[in-house]
Amino acid sequence: MIRVWDLPIRLFHWTLAALIAFSWYTAEEQMLDWHLRSGMAILFLLVFRLLWGFAGSSTARFSQFVRGPAAIVAYLKGKVGAGIGHNPLGALSVLALLGLTALQTLLGLFAEDNDGLMAGPLSLFVSPDTAEAITELHEALFNALLAVIVLHVGAIIFYAFRGKHLVGPMITGRAKADEDTGSDEMKPGKAWVALISLVIAGMIASLVWSMGG
Q1: What domains lie within the chain, and their CATH numbers?
Q2: What is the pLDDT of residues 167-179, one digit of tens each?
Q3: Whether the predicted model's global pTM rises above the 0.85 cut
Q4: Each residue of 66-81: pLDDT tens digit?
Q5: Looking at beta carbons, which pairs linking 86-90 to residues 24 or more positions away fall under 8 Å?
Q6: Which residues pair with 3 in a beta bridge?
C-alpha cells in the first residue's frame, strides 16, 4: 500500500460533501440561519483548499493534477498512466466541483431571502434588485452543481466496476500500488503550513461574516 491522500485533503473532501448536503437540506426546509452558517463553513474550507493547493502535499497541489488537453488525450488513449492522486480526466471533475462550489458560495454571500429577514453578509453592498437576481442565480446554479456531483459519483462507480476503487483511499489515505500508480507515494505537506492555512481561512471567513453586521 502506498500513501495517496493526506489527512487535510480527506477531511476537506468528506466535510465539504456533508456541508453541501446540509446546505441543500437547510435551504429546502427554509432553515436559512443554518444555511448561512453552512455556507460560511464551506467558505472556510474553500479558502483552506486554495492555500493547501499551492503549499500542501504533492497530490493536493494544483500543479500536480491540473494539466493541459494533451495530457487528457494521452490518458484517454492509454499512453500515460493515471499516477497517484487525480488522473488527468478526474482533475476536470475536481476543478468543476471546486469552481462551482466557490461560485455558489460567493453568490450566497450576496443573496437575500424574500422577506429580507435573512441575508448573506455581503448583501448590504448590493441593491435589493441585485440581491434578488443573485438569489435566483444562487438557487439555479445548485442544479449545475448537482449535475457535476452526479457525474463525479458516476465516475467513481464506473472505476469501481473496472476494479479501481477510489472511495477507500479517500478514507484511509492509502491505495494499492499498480501499473498506473507505480511505487511513487504522496509527499506530505508541512504541519505548520496546514496550521497557517487554517488560521488564514478562519480569519477570512470571520471577516466576511462580520461584514454582515
Answers
A1: 2-210 (1.20.950)
A2: 999 999 998 876 5
A3: yes
A4: 877 877 777 777 665 5
A5: 86/59, 87/180, 90/65, 90/155
A6: 174
